[in-house]
Design goal:
By secondary structure, the protein is mostly helical. It has one domain. Helices cover 80% and strands 0% of the residues. It is built from 8 helices and no strands. The protein has helices at residues 3-13, 17-34, 40-57, 61-82, 97-121, 127-145, 151-168, 172-200. Helix 2 (17-34) packs parallel to helix 8, helix 3 packs antiparallel against helix 4 (61-82) and helix 4 runs parallel beside helix 6 (127-145). The chain crosses the membrane at residues 17-34, 41-58, 64-81, 101-120, 148-165, 171-189. Belongs to the nicotinamide ribonucleoside (NR) uptake permease (TC 4.B.1) family. Required for nicotinamide riboside transport across the inner membrane. InterPro entries: NMN_transpt_PnuC.
Amino acid sequence: MPAIIQQIIQQFAQTTMLEWIGTITGFLCVYLAAKQHILNWPISVISVVTYGYIFYHSKLYGDAVLQLYFLGTAIYGWYYWSKKIRENDKPIVSFTKREMLFTIITIGILTALLGTFLQKLTDSDVPYADGFCTAVSFVAQFLMTRKVLQNWLLWVFVDICYIPLYLHKGLLLTAILYFVFAVIAWGGYRDWKSTYRTFMQ
């Protein structure tokens, strides 16, 4: 058997039950979000609590703190999406070029702040990579709660960025999950874009 296959099998065998739980619930919540299903939010609560613990012990402190933010946005998103559940669905909105520029600037500022914080005050060996991915995720998650179409493009981008970071930390299953996330996010973007165009007609 090739050495690379043996290594992959060994890493799967060493995957903890918590990572399996986080992976399964993470997959479900992203898939349901792409389908605009409100159950993505309660399932997200389970996923973020699980991954908060995993990331903290992997010294990915930015991601660990991000899970607390995700917990808050999951509760807010659940409320926002169900606020008028008996009326029309919350419409999907699209950013203007000015709003996208503001979003990019916000991500840049957050990256600098988080990266500096992680470098100076933690023992993280990837402070700016962690800070950047955390910043993009922070913004993308907020945009998702508001049903902004471009949230999915940010998720595609950051999910791909996360893959080498998690491989570096030995989180093979999570790295694979984030590749799947990127694929789902692209599908989510296409689905939401179709819905948006239909709504605008």
